[in-house]
Structures are given as structure tokens and as C-alpha cells.
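During the second year of the project, the team shifted from modelling isolated chains to modelling whole assemblies. The rationale, set out in the original proposal, was that interfaces cannot be judged from single-chain predictions alone. As a representative example for this report, we include one of the complexes processed in the last quarter. Its constituent sequences, exactly as entered into the pipeline, are reproduced here:
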Amino acid sequence: MIKSLVIILMTSVLVNNYVLNKFLGICPFLGVSKKLNQAVGMGVAVIFVMLLATLVTWPIYKFLLLPNDLVFMQTIVFILVIAALVQLVEIILKRYIPGLHQSLGVYLPLITTNCAVLGVTINNITDNYNFIESMVSSLGCGLGFLLAMVLFAGVRSRLETAKPPKSFEGLPLTLIAAAIVSCAFFGFAGIVENLFM
Amino acid sequence: MNKQNKLGILLKGLIQENPVLVLILGTCPTLAMSNSVISAVAMGVSATLVLLCSNIVISLLRKVIPDQVRIPSYIVIIAGFVTMVQMLLQAYLPSLYEMLGVYLALIVVNCIILGRAEMYASKNNVIDSALDGIGMGIGFTLALFAMATIREVFGNASFAGIAIPFLEPYKISILTMAPGGFFVFGCMIALVNKISKGKAIRKKEFGCAGCPSQAVCGKTGCDAGNIQEIQVEKESNA
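Output from the structure prediction step:
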């Protein structure tokens, strides 16, 4: 039991990294990774929303959609639930925990339509995970996102001082740096099989 | 004159305001689905269909939807059409449905569609919005097709599943994998910069224009941070 959970966690953090391997959540990855503190804030907010979204969407799917033959409504229901949830959390944080809202709140609205969050909830259903496995996989995906953001923020601070050809300035150079970071993650490909099986 | 205008609306999505290469919207499906020509075209066509339908409906309802709840309304409309496309593909083209996988459902959060709804369809009449939807959709499909062609021909020595034997010994298989996606996309944007002589470069920085959540976030959050930063950078440069 524990072993399979660890395998799910390691796989989603390192091997199937959402940003660098599945291309989900590219926009915040490229947009908010300029400064390390922003990258960490965004990463933590994503972990938080992913866990929350899974916590709500998994029961909705299993106990509401599946018994009533409404599986085809999955996409609509999930995106609406996630959007409403994020808004609600933001309002609650603003009212009761202003400190946390200051550091985390600014990133929350950005995540509403983030494909990584919707992606993880749908993947949990298609992979047939049970509730605990789903939560662990969401945590792993969020941690993987944070790891990629933090690593890439370091790479980008070096890029700022680089002098590329004129047409490569800005986004193209960032994307090529992302390609190299993504290559580095290929090194993890066999890690799960070798460590746990 | 009027006819030319309509043609202009249709054509600007193809090159001048190409959603992928100039506006930098919808990067996730572009990178993920461009590893083979067939999946790229399937993705492009599905997104175009959703974009066209959602633009028409949103434009029709633009005077009915209250301003405060417009984003959730747009998302519901878009999600409805995405579900229809999902069901159609599942019924008639199950192999493509398998191939697109989770990315088909993720058309809902594709920034191109929400972006065009917010930027164009909510302000213009039905015919213009429909033309804009078609133009942007074809622009998206063409950009995906071009990227997929590069990645499949050089990475897998095949085109749309048909093998090209003389390239077989020289194939660079990393191009079909994740790093190749980032690399080819970066090179293509650089090429567009080169051709447009930096005219398009202004839009390339990731501001709110390139952010999928721009519509939802209402210019708080990262935008406020970014603007401050940009100002600080400008001052320090000066």
C-alpha cells in the first residue's frame, strides 16, 4: 500500500513531471518564473489548489456523476467546481487569514483556468485511482510543478545576463533553456523501476 | 470596402495575429500535440470547431450576459461545446479520441478560446466573431501543422504516419519527445521575430496578453507584480 503510494508520488514528481514532460501549466511556468520568490509562491499556490480540487472533484465524480450516468458532464462540472472553489478560497483567505492571502492570494485567480489543475483532476479519474491515491498523485504533480518552477527560476536568472542573437531575445531563449531543463529530467526516466521494482 | 474588411478579419488570424506564434496563446496544446502531424491536425480542427461555435454563441449573448458573471458564463459555453466535440470524436473517431486523451478536455482552458471570447466575441457582431473564430482557428491549426511537420519528419522520419525511408538513418528522435517540443517552438518564434524584424517582439514578453487567466484575474496578481517589475527594470536601465 505504502509502496504503491510512494511509486505514484515519485512518478508524478520526477518521471511524468507535468510541466517538463506533459506540457501542462506552461503559461505560469514561463510567465512567473522570473524571480525565485514569485516562483515559490506560485508553486505553493498550485499545490494547494490541486489538492483542494482533487478533494472536491473525486467525490463528485464517484458519488454524483457515476451513479447517475452523468459521466459526460465531467468536463463542465470539473471546470465550474474548480473555478468556484478558487474564488471561494480567495474570499475566505482575504477575510480571515490576510497574511496568507497577501503571499498566496495574488496567485490564486491565475490558477483558475490553469490546465495543470484541470488536467490532474481528469487524470486521476482516467487512471482509476482511489481517493488516497488521487490525493497523493495531486500532491506529487504539485510538488513536481514547484520543483520545475524553482529550478527554472535559477536558470532564468542566468539568462538575464546572456547576450543571445537579437531574434532569440526573450521568449525563444527561455523556451530553449526549458528544452535543456526538460532533457535533464529525462535522467529520471528509469528511477522508479530501478528503486522500487 | 466592407467586403475587404471582412476578409481582413478572417486573414489577420492566419499570419499577422497568429495566435500561437505572434500572440503566444495556447502554448500547452501546441507543445503537447505537435509530436505527430495527425494529432496536430486533429487538435487544430477540434479547437477550431469549439472556437467557431463558442464565438458565435457568446457574440449572440453578449448583450444578455451580465458583466460580473461573464467569465463563468463563457467557461460554461465553451465547456459545453468541448463536451460535444468529445462525444462526437468518441463515437465516430475513437482512435483519435485516444490519441488526444486529456488534451481534448483541456480545450476548455485553452487560452485562445477564452481570450478570443473576451477580446473579440464579447464586443463584436455575430458575423465578425464567426470570421474571427475561423481565422484564429485556422491560424492555430497551421502553426501546429508546421511544428508537427518539423518534429515528425526530422524526429521520426515519417510524415502523417507514412515513413520516409531515406531519412531513417538520420532521425533525431529527441525532437518527438518533450525537449524537442520546447526547442522547435523556441526556434519558430525566433524565426518569426527575424522575419518581422522585431515588430512582433513587443508582444513576446509574457505580460497579461499572453496569460490565459488574464480575463479572470482582472489585472491583479502577477500583472500588478510584473508591471512594477517592468517599471523598476526600466528605471534601473535608464
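Chain A touches chain B through 58 residues (CB under 8 Å). Residues 2-186 of chain A form one domain.
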